[in-house]
TrEMBL record:
4-amino-2-methyl-5-(diphosphooxymethyl)pyrimidine binds at Q33, L34, R35, L36, K37, N65, T104, K133. 2-[(2R,5Z)-2-carboxy-4-methylthiazol-5(2H)-ylidene]ethyl phosphate binds at T130, E131, T132, G163. It comes from Tenacibaculum gallaicum. It catalyses: 2-(2-carboxy-4-methylthiazol-5-yl)ethyl phosphate + 4-amino-2-methyl-5-(diphosphooxymethyl)pyrimidine + 2 H(+) = thiamine phosphate + CO2 + diphosphate; 4-methyl-5-(2-phosphooxyethyl)-thiazole + 4-amino-2-methyl-5-(diphosphooxymethyl)pyrimidine + H(+) = thiamine phosphate + diphosphate; 2-[(2R,5Z)-2-carboxy-4-methylthiazol-5(2H)-ylidene]ethyl phosphate + 4-amino-2-methyl-5-(diphosphooxymethyl)pyrimidine + 2 H(+) = thiamine phosphate + CO2 + diphosphate. GO terms for cellular component: cytoplasm. Transmembrane segments: none annotated. Condenses 4-methyl-5-(beta-hydroxyethyl)thiazole monophosphate (THZ-P) and 2-methyl-4-amino-5-hydroxymethyl pyrimidine pyrophosphate (HMP-PP) to form thiamine monophosphate (TMP). Its EC number is 2.5.1.3. Belongs to the thiamine-phosphate synthase family. GO terms for biological process: thiamine biosynthetic process; thiamine diphosphate biosynthetic process. Binds 1 Mg(2+) ion per subunit. This is Thiamine-phosphate synthase. GO terms for molecular function: magnesium ion binding; thiamine-phosphate diphosphorylase activity. Its cofactor is Mg(2+).
């Protein structure tokens, strides 16, 4: 089962990533993606092992960004592959059927390629400008999501990603998007996680209005 809220880790050091994972899990995160960039293989593996320990304690699913072999070595729950990473079919052959495999997409063509390769979910974005990711693809916005979803007509979960805040979620979900991946907004305030869950799991987001700090 793919979670409707994906927390993508942030941090200037591996220790900060782990601290943020701890906070996210303690605040109710069900799905955490460990996204480490520009670190040596040894540090990546050690950080992933510690992340697995934390997430296992909270029964939170752990996804490793990019490093599919590390995902298997630490017994994570899956891997998320960027557009320039290894082919999902190669990762599937290595990992087996029990691991979740997600892929990044920006266009209709990207999505179709990933669907052909039988990914479990697609991270589609960016929704809007974000400084979290370098070499940002063209921004999609609400209109972009509606257009792509109408053309795709897929049951594979599509996860919106890229600069998403709590205030954006209802409008995004009303396009037919399955869920959202959030980084900065959650890192700044982990107490928002229950409210994200509330909105994402509401029967009709059109009828729900949530305000910052409303975690009841």
């Amino acid at each position: 089962m793919i979670s409707k809220l994906h927390y993508i880790t942030q941090g200037k050091t591996s220790e900060e990533h782990l601290e943020n994972i701890q906070r996210a899990c303690a605040s109710g995160a069900e799905w955490v993606q460990l996204r480490l960039k520009n670190l040596d293989p040894k540090t990546i593996l050690e950080t992933a092992q510690k992340a697995r320990e934390i997430t296992s304690h909270f029964q939170t699913r752990l996804i490793i960004n990019d490093y599919y072999k590390v995902a298997k070595e630490v017994n994570a729950d899956g891997v998320h592959l960027g557009k320039k990473d290894i082919c999902p079919l190669t990762a599937r052959e290595y990992l087996g059927k029990w691991y979740a495999i997600g892929g990044t997409a920006n266009t209709l063509e990207d999505c179709k390629k990933l669907l052909e390769k039988k990914v479990d979910y697609i991270g589609l974005g960016p929704f809007q400008f974000t400084e979290t990711k370098k070499n940002l693809s063209p921004v999609l916005g609400i209109k972009g999501y509606k257009t792509l979803l109408e053309k795709l007509q897929t049951e594979t979960p599509i996860i919106a990603v890229g600069g998403i805040t709590l205030e954006d979620v209802s409008d995004i979900i009303n396009t037919g998007i399955y869920g959202v991946a959030v980084s900065e907004a959650v890192t700044q305030n982990f107490n928002l996680i229950p409210t994200f869950h509330k909105i994402l799991n509401a029967p009709s987001t059109n009828e729900q209005v949530y305000k910052l700090g409303d975690n009841n």
